Fold this protein.
Amino acid sequence: MLCFSSLKNIIRTTRKSITGLDVKGTGEFSRRLYKRHNIFWNSPDAELIRNKAMQPESPLVAWKTGVNWQRKLSNKYNARLFAQMHGCKVAKLYWKGRNLHELDFEKLPEQFVIRPTIGFSCSLVFLMDKNFNHMDQQTYTYRQLKEIMAEALDQNPYQEFLVEEFLRSEQGEYKIPKDYKIWAFNGNIAAITVINRTSAKGGLSNSYDEHWNVVDDIGRVYELAPYQEPPACLQEMVSAAKKLSKAYEIFVRVDFYATDKGAVFGEFTPTPGRGNGFTPNSDKMLLSFWDKYCKDMV
């Protein structure tokens, strides 16, 4: 007898096949992302480059030294600094590091966020509200949080954690924020995917162009959401994403949050899904932007 989770996976896979989702990433855009992922992360220097310690005062030329220098921005602390350098808002930073003995949860506000400097798919992300984690709907003591963090640090000598401000929604609420994932090519925006998360893995999504016209959703990783109004800070978000994308040069997905403080930068994602999960139509659309604005780039 199939367990419920197995049955859900079969249903999800079948639905993706029927709707035309490129699950295996066979389109040309998908292939380029897969190739980039191998170039970026299968080289011997990958982790040294990703985790090169950058400083707030580092000039732009220092960021852009070395082959595929954009790998430095896959470290989430470096990404924060780069975004600030380009005039973007970021969440307030309360603590950063590996030495958990220096982290005093008692001195933090009741609401805060924990996230690793290396990671993806919301792994090891905690949106803490008093002792409640909005991400998995579970409660944690400070001791439990430190034990989870310590285990992750033991597994990766390059890993660090950031403890940041819990950003409120535009309505001033503490909840899982909407992700505005902006598909950008050297200063040009192909689409904005909005993800309404219900958990680390669950949620709804739909996509728009920069003028908030509905476009084909990039992929059915999440169920399709109904139309939603643009954020109040849309123009600020678009302007900031274009500026960061132009500086990044090659294709990158730039993630933002719409908050009661305006558009706040989240992170860079250079190889979304490692090239998997695109519909054939979205693969062609994204490929056309790559060929037009990032021709012959990695």
Notes: The first strand starts at residue 93 and ends at 97. The chain has a mean pLDDT of 91. Residues 93-165 form a domain with the Dna Ligase; domain 1 fold (CATH 3.30.1490).
